[in-house]
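Fold it.
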Amino acid sequence: MIVSWRALRWDKTGRCQFGSLVTVVLLLCALTSLSGIAQETIRVGVYNNPPKVEIDDAGIISGLFPGLIEHIAAQENWILQYVPGTWTESMDRLDRGEIDLMVDVAYTIPRQALYAFNEETILVNWGTVYTRQEIDVLSLTDLEGLRVAVMRGSTHTVDPGGIMDLAERFAIRCIFIEMDNYSEVFHALATGD
């Protein structure tokens, strides 16, 4: 900030009047404080789920949602602090107030009671069943007797209409093996676990 010395009042002896100097000092302090308030640190929970959000080996966060959040942060004068973890760790952190924002959370009615969701749809979310080549799954009933890897806490896993709910409603007996992320799910599928 530039302050003109002409704004100060000088008496006939050439000394600055104390009241004017105090006013300028207080004004400078207030503006300095306001500039500090204008920038807010937002703690953002992230987990590995490419291409929506990805954490590489060097800890670099990228993907659709981080790109969008970084754009909003620039507009809002936010400082982003990414807090990596698994999906369930991040959701627990959100519940405890250890993070301010969690990326890639599908809207559900139970979650709406707990969290504030944006009003614009960013990405349409759906679930897909992947199998090894020698296994054909054309309907849910084909899961009977199979070991099924799922991501722990995902809306596709545990929410109404998720795979566990559907298996229960259709009396499909399969074994669900919960993993921390989809990379683990696909690794288990590839190895036959």
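The radius of gyration is 27 Å.
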